[in-house]
Amino acid sequence: MTNAALVQIKVDTQTKNDVTNIYESLGLDLPTAVRIFFKKSIAVGGLPFELKVEKSSARWNIYKEARNSIKKNNVPEMSLDEINAEIAAARAGL
């Protein structure tokens, strides 16, 4: 590297050791793995992985909102048989 810049970061010791072990198992040292991360970031124009809210927590929030709406609007509970019958009726009407 003829025109190299020094990049320094601080992470806790356990994180460094864990990631070093992972990269070494792939035949990479830590600096090479970081360079790969940088190059991939450039190639994709952002982080080389998707950032998102944990799906299960998002689904849980939707479920809680629905349950609260049902209680607030005094909607009667439906049994599984009633739900299935309603679905079958809707499908038959299509």
Describe this structure in words.
The chain is mainly alpha-helical and 94 residues long. It contains four helices and no strands. The protein has helices spanning 13-25, 30-44, 55-72, 80-92. The longest helix has 18 residues, at 55-72. The relative contact order is 0.05.
SSE topology:
Elements: H1 13-25, H2 30-44, H3 55-72, H4 80-92
The low-confidence runs, each spanning 5 or more residues with pLDDT under 50, are none
What is the terminal-to-terminal distance?
66 Å
Beta fraction: under 5%
Radius of gyration: 26 Å
Number of extended strands: 0
Helix content: 55-70%
Q: Please describe the biggest sheet, giving its number of strands, its sense, and whether it closes into a barrel.
A: none
* Count of discrete alpha- or pi-helical segments spanning 4 or more residues: 4
Oligomer: single chain
State mean pLDDT (0 to 100 scale).
86
Structural class: mainly alpha
What would you call the shape?
elongated
Provide the descriptors you would attach to this structure in a database record.
mainly alpha
Write a short abstract of this structure.
This protein is mostly helical.
